[in-house]
Specification:
With 110 residues, the chain is an alpha+beta fold. The chain has three helices and four strands; from the N terminus they run E-H-E-E-H-H-E. Strands 2-3-1-4 form a four-stranded antiparallel β-sheet. The protein starts with a strand and ends in a 14-residue tail after the last strand.
Length: 110
């Protein structure tokens, strides 16, 4: 399984309405991508200093599932409508894991 993590820092002037609209659009998009096994997105709680404004976590089975999600027309539309005008910076990482497939074994590979 692959965990895809993305974090975003917004441009100055990004409004709470834009963030709310993005969040709703991402969850709606995720409903239509069958390759997504789990999806979570939202504003940073800012429980620790620094960091991004918003994060996304997507869980897929494999590279093909990741490609289907990120290259989907629905994802491109959300990017066009929201992210293209909101993003100052973006970071992403993909992690391979089998820990989520084995309850209680949360330290994959350790």
């Amino acid at each position: 399984m692959i965990v895809h993590l993305a974090s975003f820092v917004w441009k100055d002037g990004t409004t709470s309405e834009q963030v709310s609209g993005l969040t709703a659009a991402l969850y709606e998009m995720a409903k239509g991508v069958p390759e997504l096994r789990f999806y979570l997105c939202g504003e940073n709680l800012r429980l620790r200093p620094a960091g991004a404004d918003f994060g996304v976590l997507a869980l897929v089975d494999d590279q093909a599932g990741l490609d289907a999600y990120l290259d989907s027309d629905a994802h491109a539309e959300v990017y066009r409508r929201f992210l293209s005008v909101m993003i100052e910076t973006r970071q992403a990482a993909q992690l391979e894991t089998d820990a989520l497939a084995a309850p209680g074994d949360w330290m994959a590979g350790h």
